[in-house]
Amino acid sequence: MSKSAKPKGSSAKSKSSTTGRASATGSSTTSATKDQAAVPVNVSKTEFKSTQPDAPIRVPVADEKNVTPLEVPDVSDNLDPVAQEAEWKHFLEEGSEYFNKERYSVAEVCFKNALTIAERMEQSSTDKDVAKARLTKSLNNLAALYHVQGKYGMAEELYERCLDLKLQMFGEEHLEVAVNLHNLAVLHSAKRAYLKAEILYKRALEIRSKLLGEDHAELVPILRNYALLLRKSNRKEESEKVNERASAIEAAAKA
After folding, report:
1. pLDDT tens-digit readout, 181-232
2. What is the distance, to the nearest Å, from the Cα of residue 32 to the centroid of all Cα atoms in its chain?
3. What is the DSSP letter of 201?
4. How many helices (H) and strands (E) does the chain have?
5. Cα–Cα distance between 215 and 212 in angstroms, integer?
6. In degrees rounded to 5, what are phi and psi of residue 174?
7. Which of 5, 29, 30, 94 has the lowest CB atom count within 10 Å?
8. What Cα–Cα distance (Å) separates residue 176 from each residue in 5, 99, 150, 207, 216?
9. Rounded to two decimals, what is the model's pTM?
10. Are the CB atoms for 141 and 133 separated by under 8 Å?
11. DSSP label at 70?
12. Right CATH number for 43-53+69-254 from 3.40.50.1000, 3.40.50.20, 3.40.50.1100, 1.25.40.10?
């Protein structure tokens, strides 16, 4: 019997309810006091990796008052699909660049513009799968931005929309679904909602284990984050076992 990708008790809503990154290909921002997030360049291949998933978010000290002001152009009214696609990619790439520079207010405008275009194209597109894929990338980028800023409620809503779309596209047992479940787990860990986070970590692990194998390297990020959750929940023995499993997988991959 197949298990739901949105476990009971998690914040992941069913498709009928009111509305929701595989290994990272970008470079990572690193901090001992915040979630370590892969840069959202290729969002469908981007996933949060956290050293302290429940630590308070530290908004970077990049003082935007001391940088040259930048005007982000508004979304154009051009309804030509080719022009819209080019404009969407432009805003997505610009947003990722400013995200990487920790220019978050500018990145937000770019990502919001990209989302506006993706939503517009989804309504008019005849290829719904391509349109939904475009929309999931836009949702996940903006969610990642809010996540690292500590705007958890806003991030959660976008992650949920993204998850709903992926469930429609891929079904419950797919690697893309596992990515979103992992992102939501890290988010709930940051909120110290450990019960919800644990359910999501377990489901993400279950999907990857089934599709990739019990000893695949892509299980390690989830295992490490899950172990940290267990440690923060005062379940030291369980945490050590999970960490040992992650270390064994890493050692085997290097052998």
Report:
1. 999 999 999 999 999 999 999 999 999 999 999 999 999 999 999 999 999 9
2. 19
3. H
4. 8, 0
5. 8
6. -150, 150
7. 30
8. 11, 22, 24, 10, 16
9. 0.73
10. no
11. -
12. 1.25.40.10
